[in-house]
Amino acid sequence: MAQGNDDVRELRRQLEETNKAMWSLYKDLDDRNAELDRFALIASHDLKEPARRVMARLDRLEAECGDRLDAAGKDHVADMRQTLERMTTLIEALLNFARVTSQGGPFAPTDLNAVADEVVADLSSRIREAEARIELGELPTIDGDPLQLHPLLQNLIGNALKFRKESLPPVIRVTSRLIADDSCEIRVADNGIGFDPRYAQQVLQPFRRRHGRGRYDGIGMGLAICDKIATRHGGTITLDGVLGEGTTVTVVLPRNHAVRPAPTEA
Q1: In this structure, are 192 and 97 located in the same domain?
Q2: Are 144 and 240 part of one and the same domain?
Q3: Distance CA 62, CA 93 (A)
Q4: DSSP secondary structure letter of residue 144
Q5: Which of 95, 144, 152, 264 is within CB 3.0–4.6 Å of 44 for a Cys-Cys bond?
């Protein structure tokens, strides 16, 4: 019996050591993620001013010397302006990505029906232009940051509008269902151009695009921001699609949080 008790004590000691090691690893990873967010926030702020100054100088050059530039010179100026505009967009996207955690608001009961209605209103001109049909199912009320749940849905519906077929008006369905572990599943499904499912994980990473540059605008940050918002809410996001047939994005979010996260400091 004594040997058995010794074995139990040894197993308990090993379990405690393992728990300590796992907690230390988790805290280290959490600290590293926070450090990366702070770096992205600071770097983005520092980059905005030089980009603004270069754009101002370019405007002045065009105003003062534009009539003396030949065709090649005007092409160079247009090229530089396009590059600067893209750089500014990248900087702003990086700032928005970092702000998900550094400037997140407190959680509160949030009616996703109201959020979805606001998103559809915000996207109304794009919806009319695409002759799209948006079908909103009944959505739940969850504990969350309403200022982040809005861009989450807006990015997903906006992507469905962007990656549409030219020959077919978009139909975008937003539905939900409750899951047994007090979570909810939100699905945004479309009949657009779809994508190769082999890249389902890659497109959730920053600056990774479902499709190459050219026909579709954007820099590949929308889904990365969605993924980060879902993670901050204790949830997950997955993509499923068939090339040429459409895409379904599934977001699983807890409906309640024991402790509602407060804003974190940058």
Answers
A1: no
A2: yes
A3: 28
A4: E
A5: 95
Please report, for the domain that includes residue 122, its CATH number.
Answer: 3.30.565.10
Pairing of strands 108-111, 246-254: unpaired
**DSSP assigned state of 89:** H
Q: Which of 50, 73, 102 is at the close of a domain?
A: 102
Q: Is the pLDDT of residue 26 over 50?
A: no
Q: Residues 243, 193: contact at Cβ < 8 Å?
A: yes
Closest CA to 157 of 138, 137, 174: 174
Strand pairing partners for 246? 242
Smallest Cα–Cα separation from 223: which of 160, 137, 129?
Answer: 160
Q: Give which of 41, 34, 156, 33 is closest to 91, Cα–Cα.
A: 41
Residue 176: both structure tokens together:
């939900």
The whole domain housing 43 covers 1-102
Helix (H, G, I), strand (E, B) or coil at 219: coil
Which CATH number covers residue 8?
1.10.287
Q: If you average pLDDT over residues 12-36, what whole number do you get?
A: 52
| Same domain membership, residue 154 and residue 66 | no
**What string of H, E and C letters represents the secondary structure of 156-209?**
HHHHHHHCCCCCCCCEEEEEEEEECCCEEEEEEEECCCCCCHHHCCHHHCCCCC
Residue 263 is assigned to a structural domain of this protein = no
Collapsed DSSP state (helix, strand, coil) of residue 221: coil
* Same domain membership, residue 130 and residue 67: no
* Domain total of the chain: 2
Condensed to tens digits (0 to 9), the pLDDT of residues 153-212 reads 999 999 999 989 988 999 999 999 999 878 999 999 999 998 878 877 777 776 555 555
Name the nearest CA neighbour of 56 among 79, 75, 84. 84
Could you tell me which of 175, 176, 184, 165 has the C-alpha nearest to residue 134?
A: 175
Residue 133 bridge partners (DSSP): 171
